[in-house]
Prior knowledge:
By secondary structure, the chain is of the alpha+beta class. It has one domain (6-190): Gcn5-related N-acetyltransferase (GNAT) (Aminopeptidase), CATH 3.40.630.30. It has six helices and eight strands, in the order E-E-H-H-H-E-E-E-H-E-H-E-E-H. It has helices at 21-28, 31-34, 46-58, 105-119, 135-143, 180-190, and strands spanning 6-7, 11-15, 62-67, 72-83, 88-95, 125-131, 147-158, 161-171. An eight-stranded mixed beta sheet has the order 1-2-3-4-5-6-8-7, with helices on one face. Strand 5 (88-95), helix 4 (105-119) and strand 6 (125-131) form a beta-alpha-beta unit. The protein is globular. It starts with 5 loop residues before the first strand and ends with a helix.
Amino acid sequence: MYFKKMVGKKCYLSPIRVDDFEKYTQWVNDMEVAAGMIFSASLITPAEEKEILERLSKTEFNFAIVDLAKDELIGNIGFVKIDYVNRVAELGLLIGNKEYWGKGYGVEAIQLLLDFGFNILNMHNIYLKVYAYNTPAIRCYQKAGLKEAGRLREAKQIAGAKYDEIYMDILAHEYKSIYIKDLVEKKKQKA
């Protein structure tokens, strides 16, 4: 069972379920999924993935991404690093179910997490890192409102070629709320 913490039109964010470890193990060992991630060179067993999910489920602000219509797990999203003093957070995203790639679920999940980060956690800057060869992910991040902030040149070598690690970010004043502000307005109208 999943719980609707942040709800969009296509998907919602829920606390992570450790029981989903087998599905995650399939995803992280699928090279097509893993190629854009830091764990692409790792072999992850079900026991290791269960430990990872246990840690993530106890760490603040990591969510399962669930298809709203089917209640089907499609990936996860969260803040892998938060600097509360400077109000900066690093976003991490995995859409493991390839049937959902290129259909706007990643964009909406990012927007929901940005809404949570800016309007609940009061972050000022939210950023992520992506390898230059992962053009579908870059397009997804751009559609969600992130912009290129800089590059670590030739930071990744894969298949005999070197690629930049791109830093993308968005500032609080650049983000337009899609969920939280509507909830607050509804609460004010009911008063």
